[in-house]
Amino acid sequence: MTDKDFHNRIKEIFSEALELSETERPQFLEKSCGDEKNLRSEVESLLKSFEKSDDFIEKPAADFKEAFVEDKRIGQVIGQYKITKEIGKGGMGLVYLAIREDDFRQRVALKLVRGLDTKDVVRRFKNERQILASLHHPNIAQLLDGGTTEDGIPYFVMEYVEGLALLDYCNDQQLSTNERLDLFKTICSAVQHAHQNLVIHRDLKPSNILVTHEGEVKLLDFGVAKFLNPELMGDSSQTQTQFRVMTPEYASPEQIKGSHITTSSDVYSLGVILYELLTNERPFKFDGKSLDQILQTVSQSEPLAPSSVNSRKIPTSGGNPKSRIQNPRSLRGDLDNIVLMALRKEPSRRYKSVEQLAEDVQRHLKGLPVSARPSTFSYRAEKFVKRNVAASVVGTFLILSLIGGIAISLWQAREARRERDRARSEQIKAENLSRFMQQILQAASPEQKGKDARIIEVLNDAEQNIETEFANQPEQRAQAYLNLGITYRSIQEFEKAESLLKKSLQISETSFPAENQITSAALIYLAMNYISRLDIDEAEKYLNRGIEMERKISPNGSKLLALGLLQTGEILLRQSKQNEAENPIEESIKIFDTFTIENDPDYAYAIGELGRVQMYKFDSRAEGNLRKSISIFRNLPRNYENRMFTSLMNLGLNLAAKSNFDEGFKLLLEAEEIANRSKLPNSQFWAKNYLCKAYGYKGDLDKILEVCSQTVKLFNPNEMKEGVDNVYTYNFLGLALTRTGKPQEGEPYLRKGLALIEKVTPTDEVFVAIIKSALGENLLAQDKLDEAKPLVEDTYPIIKAKLGDQQKNTISALRRLVTLYEKTNNTELANKYRAELPQ
After folding, report:
1. Mean of the per-residue pLDDT values for the chain?
2. Cβ-Cβ contacts under 8 Å for 364 (sequence gap 6 or more)
3. Among 509, 545, 566, 630, which lies 20 to 30 A Cα-Cα from 238?
4. How do strand 93-101 and strand 81-89 relate by DSSP bridges?
């Protein structure tokens, strides 16, 4: 065994041992090392050194660099990015500042696996990259690119955030309590977005939250985050809790104990962050404590209320006034209760969701009752008086001066009750829907249903509970059905999606005003569902209504409107109306651009559809847009490959048309592989259809006959209408039969293609001219010269004017012209046009 192999074995065994408890390790080491005493001795030495390090809890195995020296990367170019300096170290990777130097300059943060690049570490690193690709939120640092270095090390590229850590920013700017709370709400929004995408962060702390100089919050470092959705993980082993990979000061009790982790763990960490935002101290101090002492503190001690911490601070002449909330009394009451509720030791007694925590903070800022304390009469009255200072002063004056002041008191009490009832009603609605979605999140965890559980089981369970959960709450019921319908559609369960979306629409239309976003969303997603099932006529009925309503609701645009317009373009493309499709797709992209969500799968699909339109119009911009679409999709989880399918086919065909057959066929065969394992309707037909066209461009007659014949057999007229794509199949199959000596067999295909193209495309279009010219070649082969003559003569100038004299279709049309004049003994014209042929 070489030294390299020996060290690799040490790394692998060391990394796996860290995942186990101390009692499990001896048996594991005995099994893994066997009689190799030197190997076991090295691993045990590393484990012992690792446990003795001062900050071992925060360091995973990948951070143990004494044994393995890290590469020096400064000045290297990785992909399109030149590394300039190291800016941070994560548990699994090094983070560098890098400069993109190609068509434009851009500063980025580039993260590389470092240290112990074991399979486990690499898997976790890729897990972080996949998680980031699934999150699209303005307050989460965006993934821009990724790949593998020449020496086989995974990396990914993120937006470079220039700013201060959360606490440094708040203290440097001397932010007030309310300003700190506003920042905290933004942080909650980012974490809630992650939870809605079935991701638990597991390492929330101020150093992982940067604030730019403009005051924009950015949540970073999903290195130990966890996917709850087994469909997205790809490897269930990713869900295993990393051995002590945490920051104990911010970790939840169940995280420190090694118990089951849910989104409630992030709620606890946010509670610690809020505590520190308000006091500049943490609830517990763990410096110098052993793991046993930390566990004892977490299990038995209760934190002081934030107001008590602040009230004990005595400013000194040498103190930093920036670090103190100026009015500690402002924390008493609501804020104390909000923080302490988030920090409860039992997950079931904390806020049910991050959204509920943020809602209580917002209600405190508005002076409304919060859920973190009992709704007593004195509490409600206090809140009412604070919100209605002027009315309260007048009421007090009248009580003191007039006997009739009793009436004012009664009025105030009645208003307080009404306000309470309204607030409580809204709170209950939010809590119920949040709790319901939280149950789905928790149930989706593999630990809840076993590692082989599929998310669809969770969705089925959720559907059964909607009617009972929201029996008297139509808005929540409609929203829940809508959310589940959208989710079923995303996993290609189209019939189930249709049923749920129609339930949402029915409830919404009967319970709410004529124009509301649940209705418009249900209409648009129903249309999308019908398009996926190739029922275009039914799709149009819903889509037009949905877009019209959404334009009224969101006159400045919304992502929902962008989706609707994209579907309009999709329908027009399926109806072979390429020219009409371009405008709605471009409008859709403009709306997407306003959200700055480039890694969004819907945006990627829109860019791909624009490239598809441009390809049909022979627009040179098509290739760039198709490549951009595929690049975005490749940075997303694999479950988006069905949506990348169309862009792969179109780019592959586009490249084949330009004689770039190697890359073109590689992409087309990748699309065919997706089709073979996909639930997408007629996907195998489309994959064969595009391969047929590509072989047509290549001129491979044997492959054309083989693949195009398969394509014709796969077409199902009961499920889809014929369009331009079918025309190409008939054209290439007819030409291949013509050129292999079977023109009589090829003629029906060419005539069928011509009849179809004339039905769906104006007669002056170049497409029509191309098909007519091909039919002319077939007739020339059969010596039907009189019939062939107008087809060949009239089409050449149209094709040349549109495509230029070097394009394949132009050259083919020119050759037919030469053949025509040779067969009709017109030597002068034959020589004239022969001279124009490329040499």
Report:
1. 76
2. 181, 334, 335, 338, 370
3. 630
4. antiparallel
What's the token pair of residue 226?
Answer: 């966890």
Per-residue pLDDT of 644-677, as tens digits, reads 899 999 999 999 988 899 999 999 999 999 988 8
Spatial separation of the C-alpha atoms in residues 813 and 793, rounded to whole Å: 9
How many CB atoms sit inside 10 A of residue 370's CB? 23
Distance CA 497, CA 482 (A): 9
End-to-end CA distance of the chain: 61
Rounded Cα gap, residues 106 and 160, in angstroms: 9
- Do 784 and 751 touch, CB atoms closer than 8 A? no
Contact predicate 687/673, CB 8 Å:
no
Contact 155, 78 (CB under 8 A): yes
Q: What is the pTM of this model?
A: 0.46
- Secondary structure class of 779 (helix, strand, coil): helix
Q: Nearest Cα to 14, choosing from 27, 28, 1? A: 28
Catalytic residues, which ones? 203
CB-based contact 580:598 (threshold 8 Å):
no
Report the C-alpha gap between 613 and 731 in whole angstroms: 20
For 337, other C-beta atoms within 10 Å of its C-beta total: 19
More confidently predicted of 502 and 465: 502
Q: Count H helices, E strands: the chain? A: 36, 11
Cα atoms found within 13 Å of the Cα of residue 223, Cβ hemisphere only: 30
Residue 87 has pLDDT above 70, yes or no: yes
Q: How far apart are CA 559 and CA 193, in angstroms?
A: 16
Strand, helix or coil for residue 537:
helix
pLDDT in tens, 299-341: 777 888 887 775 444 343 334 444 445 555 567 778 888 998 8
Q: What is the DSSP string of 744-767?
A: HHHHHHHHHHHHHHHHHS-TTSHH
Residue 96 pairs in a beta bridge with 86, 110
Nearest one of 514, 528, 524, 511 to 476, comparing CA atoms: 511
Contact 706, 726 (CB under 8 A): no
d(C-alpha 629, C-alpha 615), whole Å: 14
38: tokens are: 């030197």
DSSP at 720? -
In this structure, the number of other CB atoms found within 10 A of the CB of residue 698 comes to: 16
Beta bridge partners of 78: 81
% of the chain exceeding 70 in pLDDT: 72
> Which two three-digit tokens encode residue 118?
């074991």
Q: What is the C-alpha to C-alpha distance for residues 438 and 64, in angstroms, rounded to an integer? A: 37
Half-sphere CA count of 190, side-chain side, radius 13 A: 24
User: Could you give the CA distance from residue 238 to residue 131 in angstroms, rounded to a whole number?
Assistant: 11
C-alpha distances in angstroms, 219 versus 133, 150, 562, 595? 14, 30, 27, 18
Task: Identify whether the C-beta of residue 782 lies closer than 8 Å to the C-beta of residue 734.
Answer: no
**Cα 445 from Cα 443, distance rounded (Å):** 5
List phi, psi (to 5°) of 597: -125, 65
- Which two structure tokens, joined as six digits, stand for 368? 């409304």
Give the Cα separation of 18 and 27 in Å (integer). 13
Q: Which amino acid is at 32?
A: S
Give the residue among 699, 688, 764 at the shortest CA–CA distance from 726. Answer: 688
